[in-house]
Amino acid sequence: MTRKLFIPGPIDVRDDVLQKMATPMIGHRSKDASVLQESISKKLQKLFYTESEILLSTSSGSGLMEGAIRSCTSKKAAVFSCGAFGDRWYKMAVTNNVKADLYKVDMGKAIDPEMVDRVLATGEYDLITIQHNETSTGITNPVEEIAEVVRKYDNIVFCVDAVSSAGGVKIEVDKLGIDILITSTQKALGLPPGMSICTFSEKAIRRAGTVEFRGTYLDLLDIYKYLKKKNYQYPSTPSISHMYALDYQLDNILNEGLDNRFERHQAMAETVRAWAIKHFKIFTDQNHLSNTLTVIENNQNINVSQLNSKLMEKGMQIANGYGDLKEKTFRISHMGDYQIEDIQNLLNTIDEILGF
Amino acid sequence: MTRKLFIPGPIDVRDDVLQKMATPMIGHRSKDASVLQESISKKLQKLFYTESEILLSTSSGSGLMEGAIRSCTSKKAAVFSCGAFGDRWYKMAVTNNVKADLYKVDMGKAIDPEMVDRVLATGEYDLITIQHNETSTGITNPVEEIAEVVRKYDNIVFCVDAVSSAGGVKIEVDKLGIDILITSTQKALGLPPGMSICTFSEKAIRRAGTVEFRGTYLDLLDIYKYLKKKNYQYPSTPSISHMYALDYQLDNILNEGLDNRFERHQAMAETVRAWAIKHFKIFTDQNHLSNTLTVIENNQNINVSQLNSKLMEKGMQIANGYGDLKEKTFRISHMGDYQIEDIQNLLNTIDEILGF
């Protein structure tokens, strides 16, 4: 039985999109491959409101997060973390011998733009990283306010992890001055996992040119240069199946209309929040709630694992809390191609199981 | 029109295998994901004649090549190159600040085991890399003889790129003492590109433990530890579509019978070689010919690009020479699930076009 996945990725993929994963192969050095990538790039530029070049990487979102911090930190990176994925970015810096400091806030809280201001005012840093959407806590950081702070300083490369939000929430890359926006296929874009995506600004390109040891496979500049020189092709063989599915799904997304899509995500989020407030409590700071994922505090002491087992018998699945938050919280994702009715159906089923 | 690809990857994928790429999603932290990976690992251990643990990486083969040389070089790497992919391994070392020396032979020649012996006798190195099959020149290096040399020395981590041969040619990993054998999905395994595979020996595991900056996403030890701790799961979200297709295709491969499969590849190679000798000349040293790919010297001064255009009109495609060898050579791959008749049909079509 196929299960409806309300976990924060992978999520369900529409049948017509899945079928595109079964497209017959083409050579990655063929004209067809160039045409395919150019088509994808143009559509992603619309989705991200940017004129920056688009890079794909056959890797999970983590691959490009690592590539970004390593390729573009010359002096030192300021890593702002409000959960597990912020911490992961710091680990990537450390394991690559990239100088970085970690600035953390409590789980469930958002990054404070004033903290970003204080940190950047030291003049020690030339790159910052934040999560647009922190998958472990359901925070959407105030990216507009943080962007305003970043713009006060010269020469800061601004990296944003939007793995669990891009495609479901409006992020205006150029207007905000984001240099590297990173996402991957298996979340709000509604595709299978296996490919990650980023924008790569002129400032980021110039910066990477000053960094000595950037590696190869995840070196954003190496990918960019090849793409430019070889008419939208990649230095090594990409996942052509994902490229076909992505190109097709971007049509679906643009046909739905970006504003419609973002509104649908907001409506799904509001439905889950209303239910959560009625029966439990929302774990996350209410001023910074995510439109793609809700993290609920288990103040009723239900057995989350047991609830999930029963849901699975009924063909659905939610996520337990992340790491130390297991059983203390649980997570419901509402992203990709789900409709309000799918969300309502899930919540009704939980009500039934828990006797609400 | 779908084209039959006789390029050295991606190659044609059988329809039933392509359909597995469209399998609905599962959570990558679910029991189903663990069961799937364990099944894949057991089958790949049979294919590679090894008890070493199997690691998958959502990346091209280049990703794991870089991960191997970076994760496991403590003193210095000796990179033996007989073509473009050997050179690429050296570039990966340099861009990661990994100490390495490059030992090259002329294009079309194989790595000489005596050269390996002389190099290792210096005592400077603790890791070596070779291509089992060099995709730019059609060389299959004498891996058995090189393995015999490597065994004379203590504590050498032996890395072998079998991206364009594993699955089509017998490589007995444990018997040869290969520590890290690397391949990817889109060549002799007969799958779409997007996932790479390696074996990871106890010696390689111990060595990686002594290396400080291994990065994160391509760090073989990080992947290995997570796999062991979390019951065959991965630190970041893998390409589940590829895992389903790989698991299924490995059954096809094992059902064909490994010896049958390797013999089929040899028969296809012999067919192409006989044709090449009749009309052209084989570019590659005749003592080290590849069973998955033949590189033909264009001593008739045909226009290779034009030949390929005409082939494409007839629904087939071969590859021009790699890099500087363009037009001077051309390449016909014979790997994956092609049968002798497919190869014969290609050669007949070329004959027709060229008026042989």
Automatic annotation (TrEMBL), chains A, B:
Occurrences of domain Aminotransferase class V (ranges): 25-344
Positions bound to substrate: R331
Database matches in InterPro entries: Aminotrans_V_dom, Aminotrans_V_PyrdxlP_BS, PyrdxlP-dep_Trfase, PyrdxlP-dep_Trfase_major, PyrdxlP-dep_Trfase_small, SP_NH2Trfase/AEP_transaminase
GO biological process: glycine biosynthetic process, by transamination of glyoxylate
Listed Gene3D superfamilies: Aspartate Aminotransferase, domain 1 (3.90.1150.10), Type I PLP-dependent aspartate aminotransferase-like (Major domain) (3.40.640.10)
Cofactor: pyridoxal 5'-phosphate
MF terms in GO: alanine-glyoxylate transaminase activity; L-serine-pyruvate transaminase activity
N6-(pyridoxal phosphate)lysine modifications at: K187
Key words, A-Z: Aminotransferase, Pyridoxal phosphate, Transferase
Family per similarity comment: Belongs to the class-V pyridoxal-phosphate-dependent aminotransferase family.
Protein name, per record: Alanine--glyoxylate aminotransferase family protein
Organism this protein belongs to: Peptostreptococcus porci
